[in-house]
Specification:
Helices cover 47% and strands 19% of the residues. The longest helix is centred in the first third of the chain and has 50 residues. α4 packs antiparallel against α5, α4 runs parallel beside α6 and α8 packs antiparallel against α9. The strands form 5 sheets. Strands 7, 12, 13, 15 and 16 form a 5-stranded antiparallel sheet that branches. Strands 8, 9, 10, 11 and 14 form a 5-stranded antiparallel sheet that branches. β15 and β16 form a beta hairpin. By secondary structure, it is of the alpha+beta class. The protein is elongated.
């Protein structure tokens, strides 16, 4: 079994786990202890500092035992003497007999083996310290990404709770944004985790070689180790630092209704005519809405029910969904809770009607207090809204483009009126009792006034 690193204890079953292992389990698998299956979160884990001290003491004892055994095996192959000298010229470890009488190292430069060994160990330890710092930075980045993931998930949950009554399309968009953010974060985390695991494996290998290899073997391998360290450092830490994914989700809160009243006077007379009655149009961002009412009912319900429909008489050329509400006012009292309200959402295109064929029984209008008998009036109110602010802005943009196109067309016509007469006829000549220049100028001024008035009126609607 591998030794514990940064040990944590489960408060339910008292089992010990490495912090990185248990963190990976809780964040990527499930929020349960892998041993007892009890519900567990990161903040509930108990930090066991004593485990690190015990592990360190056991490692020290094992290191001292293995090091003494390694020194006994570090002997010269020729003279079976302990290796005590390092030939700087040949770059090999030798015994004192090889240095004095072997003959193969005559006039070579020698150094004490322990001194060379200490130099190599110092270099390796410096690189190990740098790798440890790099590892801690990577672990910190992993934790930041995990916090970012939790922040994004929390923000998403809060946003969903805030728009619980919104349309299904809004929640679908939020889920799509959530998926893209998590994909980005999981990609960042995976890259950091791979680098972290690689460094951990490298550090374990280096520590193993420092503790269990002989001096000569370590010296021989030090060049390769340094090459590996250099390869690691070639990849800058800046490549692992990524911009955090913002825990922000676009909110499309449902816009308010635009409403218009419809007072039907002489309702009894209108019933006898049996023709549909239209309300005054309501202009909302370039869309023209009106109420279409059959006072005596429509089709198979004629004579029995009041039929009410909402019509889109002008607007976008494409089909769009809108939410609408038709309300019949209770005139016998001021209690709005007695009003008859019908609400629905439908896909509208220009010239299409949606509504209710059986809106209310005709024989109950007067008795229930909705038809005011003394004035013979029936009061309706219709309300319309797009389901999202996104669609509302789309309608406004279409209307702005329509107004700009109309303005450009009128300005073009006015310029053409200015240039309609040839130069020879631009003198002040009378035609039917008034000057032609004056007539064109007046027509031009009227067109300009029409453009200004139209633009100001339509801008007020925006």
């Amino acid at each position: 079994m591998e030794k514990l690193r940064d040990a944590r204890l489960c408060p339910h079953c008292s089992k010990l786990c490495c912090f990185m292992c248990i963190r990976r389990w809780l964040t990527e698998q499930r929020s349960q202890c892998p041993h007892c299956r009890a519900s567990l979160h990161l903040h509930e884990l108990v930090n066991c500092r004593w485990a690190a001290e015990v592990t360190q003491q056991l490692d020290t004892l094992q290191l001292n035992s293995n090091k003494s055994d390694g020194d006994d095996n570090d002997v010269c192959d020729v003279h079976r003497e302990k290796l005590t000298v390092y030939c700087w010229s040949c770059r090999v470890c030798i015994c004192h007999q090889c240095a004095l009488w072997g003959g193969t190292h005559t006039n070579h430069t020698f150094k004490p083996l322990d001194e060379v060994y200490d130099q190599h160990v110092s270099s390796v330890k410096e690189e190990v310290a740098a790798l440890r710092r790099r590892l801690m930075e990577l672990i910190s980045l992993v934790q930041d990404v995990e916090k970012n993931v939790e922040g994004v998930r929390t923000a998403k949950d809060e946003r969903v709770r805030g728009i619980r009554n919104a349309v299904e399309l809004m929640i679908t968009r939020l889920d799509s944004q959530m998926k893209n953010k998590l994909l980005t974060l999981m990609g960042q985390k995976q890259s950091l985790t791979q680098e972290t695991e690689f460094l951990e494996s490298m550090l374990q290998d280096v520590e193993h070689q420092l503790h269990f290899t002989t001096k000569s073997e370590l010296i021989n391998k030090s060049a390769a180790l340094m090459q590996v360290f250099n390869n690691v450092h070639r990849k800058p830490m800046a490549s692992f630092v990524t911009a955090p994914v913002p825990a922000v989700f676009n909110s499309e809160i449902i816009p308010h209704f635009d409403s218009s009243p419809f007072v039907m006077n002489n309702f009894t007379v209108l019933r006898h005519k049996a023709d549909p009655v239209y309300s005054h149009p309501m202009l909302v961002h370039g869309l023209m809405w009106r109420l279409k009412v059959y006072p005596d009912g429509n089709g198979v319900v004629r004579g029995n029910y009041l039929s009410v429909f909402l019509e889109l008489s002008a607007g976008l050329p494409e089909t769009s969904k809108y939410e609408y509400r038709v309300e019949m006012v209770h005139q016998a009292s001021a209690d709005t809770s007695k009003n008859i309200v019908r609400e629905f959402s439908s896909d509208f295109e220009v010239g299409e009607c949606w509504g209710y064929n059986r809106f209310f029984r005709l024989d109950l209008l007067a008795s229930e207090g909705y038809l005011k008998t003394d004035s013979d009036t029936l009061v309706l109110r219709f309300l319309v809204r797009p389901p999202t602010f996104y669609q509302k802005c789309r309608d406004q943009q279409w209307y702005i483009n329509h107004l700009e196109a109309t303005n450009t067309q009128l300005m073009t016509q006015s310029c053409e009126l200015k240039e309609v007469r040839p130069p020879s006829a631009r003198a002040s000549t009378c035609y039917h009792g008034y000057d032609r220049r004056t007539a064109c100028t007046r027509q031009f001024d009227s067109l300009v006034s029409l453009v200004v008035v139209c633009t100001m009126r339509d801008c007020r609607e925006l």
